[in-house]
């Protein structure tokens, strides 16, 4: 099949790709482990990125040869020569056939035309984004999980473990009476501090973010889990209010997998925003939007 565009949405938790034809119809798609441009800061990380691109290309070429690629990567900062080469080569393309940007830019364009509205995205991290009518990207938040990223999956996981281990400081074994702690320790593999330490500090941020699933699953039984998810909604609302204060009232779209963990998140966010601001939650697939941009 000719004229195919390949779209890639690469985040800390997973990397999704899609092939679109000239008519915009998605003809194939797939998913693999997460990757991030932040991995380019170490030799091991660069090797993993290159291997991930090679594996993705092998999966794509089973379905057809793309003519162009549009890829959004978490942590992308604009230095793309090496990344473009690593992605283009296994696909049999010239580097100039590959356009890279942040994953948030792709997600924004999946919901809005430039200047139309605000995107609040909650995945492993979180960010508020606005692309103005001149194509200039503006942000609120999105500073990384060490500094902030309030309301994202990593933040939810960190808040849960912080609460659990503070309780254990005061009353060892208290986790047994907490549905959230039971769910969290079941996912980690045990209640020993060494396991939690390895979980938080020994793996990629996307894997840590998956722990938010355990927090959400226990929210119906554990008021602490419910409170964490409620605060996540407040954190995401703050991003929308920051953009509104700077650029005026516009519709807001909430996207990202962490935002779908529990209704408490979107319901709290809606309650925290003025009635004059429209809030819509979307499950629009950024890799589909990227594929259509590449095909066009």
TrEMBL record:
A Pfam match: BcrAD_BadFG
InterPro entries the UniProt entry points to: ATPase_BadF, ATPase_NBD, Euk-type_GlcNAc_Kinase
All copies of domain ATPase BadF/BadG/BcrA/BcrD type, residue ranges: 6-264
Residue stretches spanning the membrane: none
Name this protein carries in UniProt: ATPase
Organism (species): Massilia aquatica
